[in-house]
């Protein structure tokens, strides 16, 4: 059998290869096959690939805001009067209906007693009118009294009923006036301000106390226009109060105000309420709302950002490993992207789970080019 060295030596000596005396065609065929295999191996491109997996990309972002009380009211008396006593001070915790302040009721109480006396008088007049009507009916029946007298007494009874109704209304009004000399808590909370003292004259409508509810505290944040459309009542969110480092409270989006503020900042109010009330939140303190946005597309997958090839028109494509049976080829696919998180990106169309995408060596690949793959884990 002729060696490759003898073959090339024959070519160099005579311009033609020296022919072996035994099996010459087999040697030439083996040599050609080796050259063909070497050329095929050299045509394959080494690439690194990663298998696409179902999407677990969840984008998170944070917005700072202020914790506010759901109820905060400046309280004022319903009538003018002199402050007789104060039952609370700044910091006092009260329940709904608790007495906060009392005004002097000397004049109002006197008017109430007068109203009671007037009602008693009207009630007596009405009773007498009723008696006269009953007497007239008996006498008219015995023909000892004309019917016109019965009609007169009946009219007097009607007038007595009306007078009694007037005194009832006057008495109810005066009772309410006396009751309004007491200022009571409209809801449970803590007194956060006091602007009056015993002995002062206060006018109806003037603020004397401020009451703030400690329950149902919510967080108001301003969301930029780029994020506002992503938020809904189904968005996962948690509150991280700055007053309690390390504490995270499960919450929900309670309200979205689809009207921007007038400052020109193009932000929109988003109100977040805690679901877990085991942690006491302090109104007026700052906190962070951490939103988590995931994909609602069950067909979405995630791949490394290195797999993406950006087009001049702004679109993206990736190379996917295609097993033809005779070897592996790079198949170019257009993709639609979803959300991203770190080095991972979500693909909502163009790649399926378990497809192997090229993450290294894709810069110079051509569609249909043969490749050798080196599989890497998804990180």
The CA-CA distance between the termini, in Å, is 55 Å
Widest sheet: strand ordering: 2-17-21-20-19-18
Structural class: alpha+beta
Looking at the structure, what is the overall shape?
elongated
SSE sequence, one letter per element? HHEEEEEEEHHEEEEEHEEEEEEEEEEE
Count of individual beta strands: 23
CA radius of gyration is 46 Å
| Strand-residue proportion | 35-45%
Mean pLDDT: 85
The main β sheet shows up as: 6 strands, antiparallel
Low-confidence stretches: 1-22, 36-42
Helix content: 25-40%
Number of helices, where a helix is a run of at least 4 consecutive DSSP H or I residues: 5
Explained architecture:
The protein has helices at residues 4-14, 24-43, 106-141, 147-179, 225-228; strands at residues 45-51, 53-54, 58-68, 72-75, 81-86, 93-94, 99-103, 182-184, 189-194, 201-202, 209-212, 218-224, 236-241, 249-256, 267-274, 286-294, 301-304, 309-310, 316-323, 328-341, 344-349, 356-360, 371-375. The protein has 379 residues and is an alpha+beta fold. A hairpin with a 2-residue loop joins strand 20 (328-341) and strand 21 (344-349). The two termini are 55 Å apart.
How are the SSEs ordered, and which strands pair?
Blueprint lengths: L3 H11 L9 H20 L1 E7 L1 E2 L3 E11 L3 E4 L5 E6 L6 E2 L4 E5 L2 H36 L5 H33 L2 E3 L4 E6 L6 E2 L6 E4 L5 E7 H4 L7 E6 L7 E8 L10 E8 L11 E9 L6 E4 L4 E2 L5 E8 L4 E14 L2 E6 L6 E5 L10 E5 L4
Helix pairs in contact: 3-4
């Amino acid at each position: 059998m002729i060696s490759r060295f003898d073959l090339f030596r024959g070519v160099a000596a005579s311009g033609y290869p020296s022919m072996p005396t035994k099996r010459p065609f087999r040697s030439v065929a083996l040599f050609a096959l080796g050259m063909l295999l070497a050329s095929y191996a050299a045509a394959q491109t080494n690439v690194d690939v990663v298998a696409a997996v179902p999407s677990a990309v969840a984008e998170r972002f944070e917005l700072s805001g202020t914790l506010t009380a759901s109820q905060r009211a400046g309280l004022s008396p319903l009538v003018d009067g002199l402050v007789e006593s104060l039952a609370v001070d700044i910091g006092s915790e009260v329940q709904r209906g608790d007495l906060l302040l009392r005004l002097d009721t000397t004049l109002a109480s006197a008017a109430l007693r007068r109203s009671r006396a007037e009602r008693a008088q009207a009630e007596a007049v009405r009773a007498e009118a009723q008696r006269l009507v009953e007497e007239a009916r008996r006498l008219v029946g015995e023909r000892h009294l004309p019917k016109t007298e019965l009609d007169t007494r009946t009219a007097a009874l009607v007038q007595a009923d009306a007078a009694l109704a007037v005194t009832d209304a006057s008495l109810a009004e005066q009772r309410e006036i006396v009751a309004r000399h007491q200022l009571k808590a409209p809801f449970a909370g803590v007194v956060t301000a006091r602007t009056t003292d015993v002995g002062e004259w206060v006018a109806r409508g003037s603020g004397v106390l401020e009451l703030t509810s400690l329950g149902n505290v919510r967080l108001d944040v301003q969301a930029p226009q780029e994020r506002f459309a992503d938020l809904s009542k189904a968005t996962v969110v948690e509150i991280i109060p700055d007053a309690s480092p390390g504490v995270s409270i499960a919450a929900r989006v309670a309200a979205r105000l689809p009207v921007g503020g007038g400052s020109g900042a193009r932000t929109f109010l988003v109100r977040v309420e805690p679901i877990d009330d085991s942690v006491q939140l302090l109104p007026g303190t700052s906190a962070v709302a951490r939103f988590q946005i995931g994909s609602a597309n069950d067909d979405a997958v995630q791949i490394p950002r290195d797999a993406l090839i950006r087009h001049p028109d702004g679109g993206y494509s990736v190379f996917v490993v295609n097993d033809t049976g005779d070897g592996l080829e790079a198949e170019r696919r257009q993709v639609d992207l979803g959300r991203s998180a770190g080095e991972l990106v979500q693909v909502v169309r163009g790649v399926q789970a378990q497809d192997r995408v090229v993450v290294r060596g894709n810069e110079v690949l051509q569609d249909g080019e043969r490749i050798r793959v080196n599989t890497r884990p998804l990180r």
